[in-house]
Amino acid sequence: MVKLFRLGDIFWEDTQLIYHALANLNIEALVLDSPKEEYVCLGFHQNPDDELDLEYCDRNNIGVFRREIGGGSVWLDNRQVFYNIILRKDNPIVPRLTQNYFSKFLKPVVSVCRNLGMEAEFNPICDILASGRKFSGNGGGEIGECKVIAGGLLLDFEFDKMANIMNLNSSMKDHFRESMDNNLTTIQNEMGQTPSKNEIFDGLIREFEDILGPFEISSITPEIRAEMDRLRSYYFSDKWMHQRGVNNLGREIKVREGYYILGVDVNFKGDDHHLAIFSEDGQVSELKITGDGSTDRIEDQIELKKRLSTIIKMDYDQRKIINAISDMIYL
Q1: Within 10 Å of residue 102's Cβ, how many Cβ atoms?
Q2: What is the spatial distance between Cα 226 and Cα 195, in angstroms, rounded to a whole number?
C-alpha cells in the first residue's frame, strides 16, 4: 500500500530531504507539503557556482539545494504546493517510457486544477499549462531503486526574485524576466484568487487514489528522520553542492517546456557582443544582440545580426547552433 505523507507547511530543507529519504528506504509514497521559507533548488546536472548569484542568495537568506533528480533551477516559497510521487521501479504501474511516466502521474494534478475551474492541460514532457503558460513545473528521475516525480503548483510567484537569483548578465536577466512574463502564469493570475492549500491537498489525494489505490496515512518516523539527517549532512556538503555538473557551451535557461534562451558571448570586429537566442517548440525563433555598452557600434550589431540570420528556424541543438555561429564569426 502506498503511504500518504500530508505534511503541510514544513521547514524548507525537509521538503527536499523527505522524498530523497523515502526513495532511499524504498518506501512508496505520495508526499504533500509546502516550504515555510523561500529557497532555490537546482537539478542534478547543475552547479550553483555557475547557475546562481550566490552572493544575492546569501544576502537575502535564500537557501540553496541541489537535488538528485534532473531539471533546472527553480524558485520555491510558501506560495507553492508540492507533491512528490515515489514508486519502486519494479512496480507494474510504473511506465518504462519517460513521457508515459509523466503523462500518467500528472493526470491527477491536471484534474485537480480543472476541478478548481482552470483550463489546465498537460504539456509533454512534464509541464502543466493554463492559457498556454506554465504554472506547474515537474522533474523526475531515479533515486536508488525508486522513480520519483517532484512537482509543484504556483499559487503565486516572485518573478523578480527568480530573475535576481540567477547568475546572468544584465541583458540576459532582462530577457529571462520578459520571457517569464510571457510564458509563466499562476493560479492567482488565472482565477483571480487562490484556493486554500488544504483544498488542493484534498483534491490531489482523491485524484491520486484512482491510480495509486487507497493510501496508508503516515508520518515521519524515527527511521525516516534518521535517513533525512544522514542525507542532510551529505547534500549540504561542499563535495555534493559544488560538484561540477555537465559543462555546456553558452548559457542555457529553460523557461518552460519547449521554450529556451541560449546566451552566447562573441567578439566581432574588436567589440564584445552578447547573443540571446530564443527557441520555441524545437526551433530557433528569435535572435537579440547587445553590446558591452562602451565600444559597441550599432552598425556592427546590424551586420552581425544579418550574418547570423541563417540560424533562425534552425532546429534547436545547442552544440550545432554554437558551431554554426563559430563558422560565421570567430568565437
Answers
A1: 21
A2: 34
Amino acid identity of 306? K
DSSP-derived 3-state class of residue 134:
strand
Q: What is the pLDDT along the chain (331 residues), one digit of tens a residue?
A: 999 999 999 999 999 999 999 999 999 999 999 999 999 999 888 889 889 999 999 999 999 999 999 888 999 999 999 999 999 999 999 998 888 999 999 999 999 999 999 999 999 999 999 999 999 989 999 999 999 999 999 999 999 999 999 999 888 999 999 999 999 999 999 999 999 999 999 999 999 999 999 999 999 999 999 999 999 999 999 889 886 554 556 788 889 888 999 988 887 776 778 889 999 988 999 998 876 544 456 777 778 888 888 888 889 988 888 888 877 765 4
The arrangement of secondary structure in 258-328, i.e. its CATH architecture, is 2-Layer Sandwich (3.30)
3-state SS class at 255: strand
Topology of domain 3-241, CATH: BirA Bifunctional Protein; domain 2 (3.30.930)
Q: How many CA atoms lie within 13 A of 316 on its CB side?
A: 19
